[in-house]
Amino acid sequence: MAPQPPIPKPQNKFNFIYGHRKPSQNRPTVRGGLFSNRQSLSLTKTQTPKPQPFDLHNWDPHFLPQSSTTPHTFNNNSSLFRLSPIARFIADSFRKNQNRWGSPVVSELNKLRRVTPNLVAEVLKLQSDPTLASKFFHWASKQKGFHHNFASYNALAYCLNRSNRFRSADQLPELMHSQGKPPTEKQFEILIRMHSDANRPLRLFYVYQKMKKFEVKPRVFLYNRIIDGLMKNSQVDLALSVYEDFRNDGLVEESVTFMILIKGLCKAGRIDEMLKILIRMREDLCKPDVFAYTAMVKVLVSEGNLDGCLRVWEEMRRDKVEPDAMAYTTLVTALCKDGRVERGYELFKEMKEKGCLIDRAIYGSLVEAFVADRKVGFACGLLKDMVDSGYRADLGIYNSIIKGLCGVKRVDKAYKLFQVTVQEDLEPDFVTVNPMLVSYAEMRSMDEFCKLLNQMQKLGFCVIDDLSKFFAFVIGKEERTMMAVEVFEDLKKRGYCSVSIYNILMGALHKKGELKKAMSLFDEMKESAFEPDSSTYSIAIACFVEMGDIKEACVCYNKIMEMSSVPNVAAYCALAKGLCNIGDIDAAMMLVRDCLANVMSGPMEFKYSLSVLHACKSGDAKVVEVLNEMMQQGCPPNEVIYCAIISGMCKHGTMEEARKVFLNLRDRKLLTEANMIVYDEMLIDHMKKKTADLVVSGLKFFGLESKLKAKGCTLLSS
């Protein structure tokens, strides 16, 4: 037997030790591991080039560095690394072609042997471009023998919803039916969940109606989702109609179903219907527990329906359900805020009898309500009970009682409570001392007033700022304006004075009609060491206009301009009307433009004045249209609008067109006969002035002014 040749030993493959696979299209980068080829790995780190210093002389704005980032349509870059190789290849083909569907993308996809439905779902899960996703979805369905599965349909629905194409997503059941894949409850559940989370109740009901069209019956949990989405968005009638379908389908309610209905009806204020559901819940399932009743109470309190809340409370008593501390706190606080402090106090005593934990917020609500009801004795009793129970009163409770004591003229006891807040380091603020300051001012006890100011200063109060707040509070009632002025006269002698206090009192006196006293404060301020600010001059402008002294008002306006400041809107309106009343129409229109250029939101009549000026170029009919629009917006014409008509018609139209507009306003009883005569005279005077200005401009343009002066003509100088 011939010897057999030796079996050749298999050649060693060094791929494992010296290198990895070749780079491929899907994985172009080859990274070495522990046994990789050391010769192919660089041990030195790549040096990043240092940025060159910027040279303005070599800078070319037409050649800007282009960004190296490529746009992507996937909503998370890290998700790309979790894709399968073929899915990543599809994503790369989209990105290479700028995420636009076309023949290049199709040719890339045709390189694949086959795209499975699960692969389509994988790509669509991370896709954010709805157009590209839809094109890819339909391309995949054209493959021979291909049928989408539920996963791919669901992924397309999510993709469309992410791009706010929820209307297109709602058409997926029809698409599935046309492709021989009838939709199931899961597909409708996805659409319902999308609309419910996005608060689209009508689209939610639309999907439910479509669900019935396809004869797909929801289960109990999906019915609950539909009813809850409708109830949360105040579509109570639609939710009740769905509930009727629920009962007609022979389904049995769960506790969640009942609570969704009850909370929705409570929120809508439909208490009678809610009680019917509650009775049905007792009969068919079980009695609501304390948490269910507390949820009802919270919903009704949030909607301000305390009567319904008390009815629910009675139902809770009927079911012998003991309310917890949360239910008591919610109801007592709501009753106190609504002014039903007696009922709230009854529940408070009931809590104490049962030994419930009483929150400090309940004490605060009751104290505040008793003070508002002028029952300060009950409030003080609650404070004593609170301290005896081991609680420490907060500053809000002390502030309420101090305010109540001052309201019943017991400022001495209020001052003692103020001392208690200081001793307990509660850091009293302006709200604490303001009632006492008001009481001292009403009693004209200026010594006690200043004594309190000194103590405030020792405690770190900013006394001047707090005095400004005090005067602003006092003049809130017009009958106390003169008292505020008297208090200020006394405080000035003691050195308590500021520009803001002057402004507050001047504004109050102007509002009350005491113009002379307001102007006396203005003159006194100018003579003192205090410099008037823009607010001071703005109030002075309004006072001067009402007194008929337009010249002084203009001086105040110029002062504001010199300060590089801006008057307030009220001063602009007052000065514009004053200039219109004296016939200085050009200055008034200039002021209107200045106001709209400087303030954030100018008055409506100023905005329509510019509209009227522009409409005058198109004739009287266009002006009447603007006036009609103005009145529809609730802004009747006034002096500024009338002067805008005169100015615009003298510049762009004729006197006859202006008179037609005024006649229209008179016929509509927006302009009296007397005022029409006045504005007609202003129209004639303004037209004469404009004509004279044109003549003078023409003479100056042709150089005839000097010749007329040489002949002794005084026309131009006049």
TrEMBL record:
Disordered: annotated span: 21-54
SUPFAM superfamilies named in the record: TPR-like
InterPro entries (UniProt xref): PPR_rpt, PROP1-like_PPR_dom, TPR-like_helical_dom_sf
Chain intervals with Polar residues compositional bias: 36-49
Pfam family membership, one: PPR_1
Keywords: Repeat
Domain PROP1-like PPR: 167-287
Repeat positions for PPR: 149-183, 219-253, 254-288, 289-323, 324-358, 394-428, 429-463, 498-532, 533-567, 638-672
PROSITE patterns according to UniProt: PPR
Domain of life: Eukaryota
Family membership noted in the UniProt record: Belongs to the PPR family. P subfamily.
NCBIfam families on file: PPR
The name this protein goes by in its record: PROP1-like PPR domain-containing protein
Naturally occurring in which organism (per UniProt): Fagus sylvatica (Beechnut)
